[in-house]
Amino acid sequence: MKVFLTGRIQCGKSTCIKQLIEECSLAVCGFQTLPFYEQGIRLGFYMHALWENPYNDVRFSIQHPTYNEVIPQVFDQFGVAVLQHARQFLIEKKQQKPVLIVDEIGRLEQQEKAYLKLLQDSIAKAQNVLGVLKKCEVQYIQAIAAREDVQVFDLDVMSYDEVYDKVLALLKSR
User: Fold this and answer.
1) What is the largest CA-CA distance in the chain?
2) pLDDT in tens, 124-133
3) CATH code assigned at 76
C-alpha cells in the first residue's frame, strides 16, 4: 500500500494522515513537514522526524513575503539521516507492518540530489507508504504520482471523509 494525498493548501492532507495514524495505532517512521513560527508569525518550515532524537526538528526554509528561501543541505543531511533511520525501522519492525510517512514532498527540496535519490528509493522499497505530494508540476513529484504501485487521492476532487474512508480501508487490508 503506497498512498499519497494531494490538494490545495490547508485542505486537510496532513490532518487526515495524523488521524489515520492515531485511529489505526500505526507503527510509523519518516517525517512531517511543519510550519516554523515565532511570535505568531510563520517564518518558514521545518522537518520533524518521527522518532525521538536530540536534533529532531530542523528548519529548512526561511519565509519571505513572496517565496520560501531554502536553507541548503538540510535535506541532503538531516533528510537523508531521517530516511536512513526510517529504512532501518522498516526492517526491524517488519512484523508490525510499519508505514513510512512522508509528509510532505514539495518543490523546496528540488536541489537536494542525495535526499531525492534516497526518497525515491525508499518509496520503491517500502511496503507501506503514506504521504503528501505538493500539487505542482515538479518532475520527481509527478514521477512518484505516476508509479504503478502508488495511489493518489486528490482532496480537491474528493471529500475529506471519502478520502479518509478509502485510505482507512487500505490500511486495514494491508
Assistant:
1) 47
2) 999 999 999 9
3) 3.40.50.300
